Fold these 2 entries.
Entry 1:
Amino acid sequence: WRNILRSGLVVAALAALPAHAAEPISPRFSADPSAHVFDGRYYVYATDDASNSGTYWDSTTWRLYVSKDLKAWKDAGAFMAVTAFKWARPDAKAWAPEAAHRNGRYYFYAPVGGDKIGVAVASRPEGPFVDAIGAPLVDKARDANAGAEPIDPQVLVDDDGQAYLVFGTRVPKIVKLGADMISLAGPIQDLTITGFPADDPKKKYGEAPFLHKRNGLYYFSFSTGWPGQIVYAVAKSPMGPYAYKGVILDYLKISTNHQAILEAEGRSWLFYHDTLLPGGGDHRRSITVAPLTYAPDGAINEVKP
Ligand code: FUB
């Protein structure tokens, strides 16, 4: 041992180990976390990779995980299916969902088939959710400027009560929601991001838009593409324009990257998906969580998984 230690091999090997390897919180394949605290419990709504073909993101259900402490997670199952929306094809793809709580009710925003976003409502966070309006909330075929792929919805309810819905691939979209949370209250607009580094053409908007607010500043995070980094930009107004700031999470060995940021009990958390479960891959993703911290000037420190 003394000789081995002297050679420095053990020290070098230990130094190469991560202090804490990422572990999945989802015991089944799941992706695209939408993380919330409702009534003192943590909820993660997710794309249900456990029921897809394994070769594409073709699941038609969404999955839910619940925790009291962010450590032990209960699989609450495939709690919602595209068939809850009568206007949807029963085989339509169920992708990255979002949930929100307001007016004593829970709202579930569901990208369906890659071209529509539905909204469902429930009296409890785990559902049952029912279609709130009997038609898509956003529809590529109906709505001007919905973009090529209205997917990945995410909602911020601002301090003044105004709610914003962001969504979309390649061009980020933003629209005000009505106070009822189930109607659009203005035109769908392109969200502008300025200041991408000129020396990195890969730094551009891809998908997974996420809007949060901290100390009066609006943070817009997103994936840069396929594969993508999670990066962010900031603005003084929710509608932007947003100024590029930096990387939150570097490329992972996976074709998609998708994050959610949650503030809870004075701490911030980054939820994202990776290939952590045995048999994992591009279409068999699993969700994990890491602490997210800020520099004194409000910049987000890069998360090292
Ligand atoms: O889960 C299907 C798609 O993969 C999501 O809509 C994207 O954000 C990417 O994670």
Entry 2:
Amino acid sequence: MYVCMCKGVTDHQIRREVDSGARSFRDVREATGCATQCGKCACMAKTITREAVQKA
Ligand code: FES
């Protein structure tokens, strides 16, 4: 599912970034561009990142 419409970032992509070493939402944002435009996706993207980091 798309989390960030502006940058076309999916939840899958966020999890993949965490799998490849991202450890914070800042890392995910820098790698994908997620939440760098309107910012509406930031809350959900942070939640997905947090969950993925906890499982990693
Ligand atoms: Fe992610 Fe707009 S939906 S920056």
